[in-house]
Amino acid sequence: MAARQVSRESVLVMLRAIASTTCRCPAHSHFNGSCTHLSPGERVVPQRTSVTKSKSAEDKEYAIEMAGCSLRYGEGVTNEVGMDFANLGVKKLCVMTDTNLAKLPAVKKAIESLNRSKISFEVYDKVRVEPTDKSFGDAIDFAKRGAFDSYLAIGGGSVIDTCKVANLYASKPDAEFLDYVNAPIGKNLPIMHPLKPFVAVPTTSGTGSETTGIAVFDFEDLKFKTGIVGRPMRPMLGLIDPHHTLTMPERVVVNSGFDVLCHALESFTAIPYNERSPRPANPKDRPTYQGSNPISDIWARQALRILGTYFRRAVYDADDIEARSAMHLASSFAGMGFGNAGVHLCHGLSYAISGNVKTYVCKDYENHHPVVPHGLSVVLTAPAVFKYTYPLCPDRHLEAIQLLGTDTSGVRREDAGLVLSETVKQFMYDLKVDNGLKAIGLRSDDISKLVKGTLPQERVTKLSPRPVVEEDLARLFEESMSVF
User: Fold this and answer.
1) Closest Cα to residue 465, out of 93, 51, 66?
2) Tens digits of per-residue pLDDT, 29-58?
3) I need a labelling partner for 27 at 20 to 30 A (CA). Which of 109, 303, 324, 463 fits?
4) Using H for helix, E for strand and C for coil, what is the string for 314-332?
């Protein structure tokens, strides 16, 4: 299914509107545009001051709504997937994966299980790593032609997200692609129609896509990422099988692990749910991304503890089943957290980085096209981001440092941002991450394009504890040109 084209003039109008206004939808409107923005090096009293002061307490959000999927964890649980679909009484299953994974044990074991349970299925193995609107369209067309009554995704976030979208649009064949794409690019319509049963078998330890109703893609003509968000897209079951992590190459472990790190850090430091305003008039309008909250905090804290203990081990010893199992769980834990709390600046900035890739190809990724892996695009700005956000929640930044295993006994609250930044840098250095945006082919001349690509990402950037304007975004990109 081809995506409806958006004219260049419409995009320019949209970007100007975003730059000059503040979104006031329930998911975003917690700033009134009059917040004080700090210049580099300027100190503030470390307390949250981001609530719109003109709003009464009655206008603020007072509730959180925790949504999640069922998870089944254990070595070898993939062997049960055939019985799961037999128990559902499915007639025709769509199996989605990519060309590389189709040759690996995860897909082989799943297909053996389906055959044992006599499940009729067809395989779509053309999923694109870091999907685009066009690759989504190809998968949607396949799903529509197949008239499937259930779906199975075997792979990383790219595969799971593609399967979510195929299920969404095949279940409503008359929908246009932009109907469910996030505003301001698309119409952001609520998902009101029923979707087919969907099981996910993640093979990487990063996106947590098996736990969320979120699908992210590159909008090629606009040169940035956007997404589709809706709780009905969430898989009904995620099978967390650590065996599949043993075939992950080193760079895939690194980049997916940094996605977990940023999911946990961003959801933990996001604006609190009860500082959003105005409160939705109807609970059905409560957004998926609600801000940091006591339930998501539990998942984020545990994910950070695991990262501090096992991340480095999981990278450099492919046979360390304990470390790789722990990171597999951390991915799901962080997914449960950010899937309800949201992410903020690291992810918001990453979408423009990915969309402006030129020639970069990452080692260990079997791609036939330039691509910056998602976890890499996210972490390259993280040191700059957490130095920027700390003044509004220094205690959260301090706690994150502790959870990652750094001694904070001599760290002052006003130094929390710098120390968290250095902690993230140390992980990046130890795990041999590319040294900043320049290392992946971007230059200072690209910053204006990167800023423009970030402006439409208000769904996530407005969850930052500290608001940003164009000058702030430009400064964060400039600081991220080199990390070490």
Assistant:
1) 51
2) 333 333 333 443 444 444 443 433 445 666
3) 303
4) HHHCCCCHHHHHHHHHHHH
Per-residue model confidence as pLDDT tens digits over 133-179: 999 999 999 999 999 999 999 999 999 999 999 999 999 999 999 99
pTM for the model:
0.86
List, in sequence order, every residue forming a beta bridge with 73; answer none if it has no partner.
240
Q: How far apart are CA 159 and CA 197, in angstroms?
A: 16
Q: How many residues does the chain have?
A: 484
Tracing tokens 């969309």 back to the chain, one arrives at 355
Query: What does the alpha-carbon distance between residue 341 and residue 363 come to, in Å, rounded to a whole number?
Result: 32
Nearest 5°: the CA angle 147, 150, 153 is 115
- Least Cα distance to 451 among 471, 480, 435, 479 occurs for 471
* DSSP sequence for 384-451: HHHHHHGGG-HHHHHHHHHHTT---TT--GGGHHHHHHHHHHHHHHHTT---SGGGGT--GGGHHHHH
Sheet strand arrangement including 121-124: 70-73, 237-240, 198-202, 150-155, 93-96, 121-124
Rounded Cα distance between 224 and 132, Å, is: 10
Q: What are phi and psi of 178, to 5 degrees?
A: -75, -10
